[in-house]
Amino acid sequence: MTNDKNVLAAERYAQSLIDLCKNNDCSYGDMSNNLNNVSDILKQSEELVKTLNNPTLSLVQKKDIIETVFAKDVSSIVRNFLKLLVEKNRFLLFNDIVKVYNKLLDEVNEVARIEIISAVNLNEEEKNIIENKLNVKIKKQLAIKYNVDNTIIAGLIIKYGDDVIDMSLSQKLKNLKQEITK
User: Fold this and answer.
1) Together in a domain, 29 and 114
2) Pair (93, 13) in one structural domain
3) Does residue 114 share a domain with residue 103?
4) Boundary (domain end) residue, out of 107, 124, 140
5) Going edge to edge, which strands form the sheet with 163-166?
6) Which of 11, 84, 110, 131 is the most interior residue, by most CB within 10 Å?
7) Would you write out the chain's pLDDT as a tens digit for each of its 182 residues?
């Protein structure tokens, strides 16, 4: 997202989708699946994205394209949402809207998405220890993604939302270097 106006618009559209599901017009999971289907289709066709953002095409043509392309993979609610985005010249915000929707959905479902970066692959016992400690601190369902980055030398980096806990040896060495050079 490039500017505050787009951020606010994406947040409003995503909140509208959450509210739509909250009012039982659809389920959160179905909405998420539909949005992911649209994302997958758009990733596969840059030409489709350009076409739907083309100012020379009429609104009717764009809506027809949406119906044709997404009819079998996407619910009518999401197709109507896509048409609304095209109508309001906001289709470029689609990916940002999906990101915000997923964050809001995590809040609704009380899910904490955590990334754990280690220098080496962790075994199941190590993962269980980390997960148990995180469960004590974070009272939500955990969705943990494990990554390996050998540049951290040793230790862990834990990312949760905007928080980063860097317990890597490379960070400790950087801190030590800063202390020495003061």
Assistant:
1) no
2) yes
3) no
4) 107
5) 141-148, 111-118, 156-160, 163-166
6) 11
7) 457 889 999 999 999 999 999 987 789 999 999 999 999 999 999 999 999 999 999 999 999 999 999 999 899 999 999 999 999 999 999 999 999 999 999 999 999 999 999 999 999 999 999 999 999 999 899 999 999 999 999 999 999 988 999 999 898 888 888 989 87
- Global pTM value: 0.80
| Domains held by the chain: number | 2
The residues, any chain, with a CB within 8 Å of residue 71's CB and separated by 6 or more, are 79
The domain containing residue 123 runs over which residues? 110-181
User: Is 91 in the same domain as 66?
Assistant: yes
Q: What is the DSSP string of 74-99?
A: S-HHHHHHHHHHHHTT-GGGHHHHHH
